[in-house]
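Posting this for the archive.
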Amino acid sequence: MPLLFAVALLALACPLMAFDMGQSTRCVAIPNQMKVCKDVGYSEMRLPNFLGHSNLEGEVVPRSEDWRPLLQTGCHPQAQAFLCSLIAPVCLDTFIQPCRSLCVAVRDSCAPVLACQGHPWPEALNCDRFSAEDDMCLSPHPKFSHFAKDLPKPVCQNCPSVEETPAMKTVLDAFCQDDFAVTAKIHRRRILRGEPEFGLEGRVEFIHQGPLLPYDTQHLLQQWLLINLQCASTLVHPGRSQLYVLTGAVQPDGTLGLNRVFPWHKRDTNIAVATRKWKYHRC
């Protein structure tokens, strides 16, 4: 977990005072540098916000950007709407907070991602502080829930087995035993603040497609790296890109896990032979 995000969570660990609906507020434009909420669907926000922040440049913008790592994991399709309704509430004639049901839906999907990084769900986002369903709060959108169930979803998991210079039979057995196998080049770099950042370089190539979808797999593996940062840190050394063969399975509940990782170095002829033989191989 990036250090600044951990600090942001610590800042939210203590309960905030209840927002006073009678206090004086003002409307301001959502600034361009507030990228987390820039495309949320409206252009003006209310200050102070529902987390008690009133200084736009000193509090609101930097605190909002600290949530970027969680939102990038895609832990819930309405996580941005939920967080921005508190960080940058829409400026209307009335106050619109998230409904308790939206908070619960986002918490149930995103809290496990935070737990994977060793952090609890922040007390300031305790769902009991939000009202039950009514016409004056932001509720979950059913179409997002339905769509999310149709696609495999990466989750926090124990780090997969990493096997250096495997035998050809080991690789072929992995292809047979797992639902899918792909090749992907993963890179690791350090951004200005010093935290590691992981990504996929080039295209993901299928060896054994299984239940994966071509248009979704690149994004799916990127999310896996973001969720399982500790595993990613053990896989890839700083400043380097490495080609891997990744095998895994999709569970009946739609969750995806990686089971085996084979670093594919130029000297690993067994992996190259196994990938060629796979087309004609009988398990």
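The two ends are 40 Å apart (CA to CA). The chain is about 35% helix and 20% strand.
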